[in-house]
Amino acid sequence: MKFFIDGADPKEIRTCVEQGLIDGVTTNPTLISKVLGAGSTARDPQALLKEICEICKGPVSAEVVSEDKDGMMREAHEYVKIAPNIVVKLPLTTEGLKAVRACAEEKIKTNVTLCFSPVQAILAAKAGAGYISPFVGRLDDIASDGIDLVRKIVAIYKMYGFKTEVLVASVRGPNHIVEAALVGAQVATVPFAVLQTLVKHPLTDAGLGKFLADWKRIQK
Q1: CB-side exposure of 63: number of CA atoms within 13 Å?
Q2: Geometric angle at alpha carbon 183, from 147 and 189, rounded to 5°
Q3: What is the CA radius of gyration of the chain?
Q4: Which of these, 182, 183, 177, 169, lies nearest to 198 by C-alpha position?
Q5: Taking Cα atoms as reference points, which of 125, 128, 146 lies closest to residue 137?
Q6: Tens digit of pLDDT for each residue in 93-108?
Q7: Distance between CA atoms of 33 and 39, rounded to whole angstroms?
Q8: 2-218 architecture in CATH?
Q9: Has 152 been annotated as catalytic?
Q10: What's the rounded Cα separation, in Å, for the pair 114 and 116?
Q11: Of the listed 34, 69, 81, 89, which one is catalytic?
Q12: pLDDT in tens, the chain (220 residues)
């Protein structure tokens, strides 16, 4: 399973790259605005995206803000000039699907975001999406089953041979990752704070503490 970091902070992304944790990055306007508002050295969103693409050589999703297909395509063409690893992130709307199709025809890879139903996922795959992003945490928040949605999408894509990768988003903790992996999702995009918890286990800490204590005793 591939891990992407869901964030736009270059320091956090660099840390995860150095740890060997991540294969890519997903951003959105909210994440980018938080970083730029916090005094990033990047002067604008495109400069920030360029910096991120230099740190992480895997796919970096950059989201459009236009609501019509023509506007989305203008943004897509600007994004792909930034770096070869940019993936254009498009909304799961009728205009968004038009842009997905147009991008597919131009060999521009896309990540279709805000997926909440299996039929939406089918439409995105038929349009030529590179990734589909079901939001598991937001579904869980309204007492729906986010992982069940992932399970259905994976099964449908496998049944019909769709090449679109399932990128699990709105991940709230390690259990979401494990469950998504068990049902066959190819990617999980995870916030920095959650990524940093994945290595932790109390028995690991206890075991390491004992090993070090035993080693110190024989050094006396």
Answers
A1: 20
A2: 65
A3: 19
A4: 177
A5: 146
A6: 999 999 999 999 999 9
A7: 10
A8: Alpha-Beta Barrel (3.20)
A9: no
A10: 6
A11: 89
A12: 999 999 999 999 999 999 999 999 999 999 999 999 866 666 799 999 999 999 999 999 999 999 999 999 999 999 999 999 999 999 999 999 999 999 999 999 999 999 999 999 999 999 999 999 999 999 999 999 999 999 999 999 999 999 999 999 999 999 999 999 999 999 999 999 999 999 988 899 899 998 998 888 888 6
Domain residue spans in the chain? 2-218
Q: What is the pLDDT of residues 15-41, one digit of tens each?
A: 999 999 999 999 999 999 999 986 666
Here the tokens at position 198 are 């994945």
Residue type at position 14:
R
Write the CB contacts of 40 (distance below 8 Å, at least 6 apart in sequence).
Answer: 9, 10, 48
Which conformational region is residue 180 in: left (phi greater than 0), alpha (psi within -120 to 50 degrees), or beta? alpha
Q: Of 148, 144, 158, give the one whose Cα is nearest residue 180.
A: 148
